[in-house]
Design a protein that fits this description.
Blueprint lengths: L2 H38 L6 H23 L7 H5 L2 H32 L13 H4 L1 H26 L12
Helix pairs in contact: 1-2, 1-6, 2-6, 4-6
Length: about 170
């Protein structure tokens, strides 16, 4: 297996593991808040904010993993109709546009993260940069996953045949 594919798999496993870790934090915080209020009549003041911040990281890291794993929804009417070189060119164009969009998100994500670095959260009193950093970090991971997975995706596009039209399927 080529090095880029091994790195892509490692990156995917890391993204999934981190996303799962943040999901566990969310569940523990929400459960702790529920148990505290229900059994003891006292809410844990920090759990809501912690769960909210963990949700941001969980969603964005999960999105990065889903993108790299190819399980996000696609509008593929045109690419499914093409074969061979035209399909590869279209897929390459899509990958370039995605990379440009991710670069934009990284650049402005870093800018806004720096801008909010002096703000602190109301309950935990941590810098809001820790929360806002999820956007450029997840975008950078998506970009890295795109670069590592692009050869595999382009090979799949080259080898794919045009998909049959479901309206023309015979029963």
């Amino acid at each position: 297996m080529p090095l880029n594919e091994r790195l892509a798999r490692l990156l995917l496993r890391t993204e999934v593991a981190l996303s799962a870790l943040f999901l566990v934090v969310i569940v523990l915080c929400v459960s702790g808040q529920f148990v505290g209020r229900s059994l003891f009549g006292v809410g844990l003041h920090w759990t809501s904010e912690t769960a909210r911040f963990a949700f941001v990281w969980c969603a964005l890291l999960g999105g990065a993993a889903a993108w790299q794993d190819g399980v996000l929804h696609r509008m593929d009417v045109l690419s499914r109709a093409l074969r061979g070189r035209p399909r590869v060119w279209l897929e390459a164009l899509v990958l370039v546009l995605v990379a440009l969009a991710l670069g934009y998100l990284i650049y402005y994500g870093i800018a806004i993260t720096q801008r909010v670095a002096t703000q602190t959260s109301s309950t935990l009193q941590i810098s809001m940069a820790w929360v806002y950093a999820a956007a450029p970090v997840a975008s950078a991971l998506m970009l890295l996953g795109t670069v590592l997975s692009a050869p595999r995706w382009l090979r799949a596009a080259r080898d794919a045949t045009a998909a049959p039209d479901p309206d023309e399927a015979t029963t």
